[in-house]
Amino acid sequence: MLHSSYIEISKSALQNNINFLKQEIGPHVKLSSVIKGNAYGHGIEQFAKLAQECGVDHFSVFSADEAQRLLSAITRPATILIMGYLDNAELEWAIEQELEFFVFEPDRLREAAKAAKTVGKKAIIHLELETGMNRTGFESHTLRIAKSLLEECRDHVRLKGICTHFAGAESMQNHKRVTEQINLFNEQVEALKLEGIQAEQLHTACSAAMMTYPESRFDMVRIGIMQYGFWPSPETYSSYLGKLQRKQDPLRRLINWKSHIMSLKHVNAGDYVGYGTSFQAPRQMVMAIIPVGYAWGYSRSLSNQGQVLVRGQRAGVVGIVNMNVLTVDVTNIEGVQKGDEVVLLGIQENESISVASFAELSTQLNYELLTRLPMNIPRMIIS
Length: 383
Ligand SMILES: *Cc1c(COP(=O)(O)O)cnc(C)c1O
Prior knowledge:
383 residues, alpha/beta, TIM Barrel, Lyase, Ornithine Decarboxylase, Chain A, domain 1, ten-stranded mixed β-sheet, eight-stranded parallel β-barrel, 12 helices, 18 strands, 24% strand, binds pyridoxal-5'-phosphate
């Protein structure tokens, strides 16, 4: 089946990024590869296999369905941690599969112990603490309940981790709040320890925290965006570069989103192109029709704004992005032909379209843009 576009995932780029991250955290901190959001748009199945080949053996997902997809894709045993959604009905399955999961309220802890008893295996849990994000996590005043529950359920629950998540470590604007979160986490861990509650590992850091707050690394870091070759924010990137002699990005992007020219069209000066009147040709022009539109995540807000690469040169989007096609101006691209490769995102010869530039124009974050790449675009591994 030929698709109108496809996404290439580069193995050497991933290996490069994993090497960089491991070097950054050193041998005593574990790396968990965060693959929620369809592996940030890269495709859970394809990405996980590749990550294992690059030496990853710990994955964090958001939900049970992602864990299920991961389980069926991997070729070697791995530790799988569910950080978010897990229905009570799925608890027994998760425990049976020895999946690890966040426990963020007393009720979940009770249910986990109950399910573990039925299954006859211990639930492997990570106690999530509320330290200031105000999303999920045991609040200080519920820690006493956690403690007595943990004691009560000792035979059915293994406390593998204690963890928390930061409310925006990628921006210095949140510096005070994040620092307070780290302090509160340390205090609560200490308090639990005094009460005899101790976990095998502590973990709090996402990509930005790992880079900006080394004291947040503890025993494990949960890394999403950076393994895919993107920085959590321009701020995190420039503060890292500031410390370097040789100002060069150590990360490489894995993703290239490609299509090809479906048809060429010559238009005369004064002609309108596409729906409505948003673009009128100022001169004789050559347009290339590309079989990708907003149905595949190429945002309509890139109408008359986005750029793609053809024969190593930039070509601007002309007119409105349609559901299934977009039109670009290739008037000045010599030798352009029907069937030519088109790069929507990524590198071609010496030019590149970065997600950041793409995202800025369409007012989406790197994170959002990547994860919105539809699942039904085929992903292909390249070296
Ligand atoms: C998404 C997520 C991460 C990874 O964040 P990145 O910024 O992509 O590194 C870590 N921990 C939790 C709880 C998350 O939800």
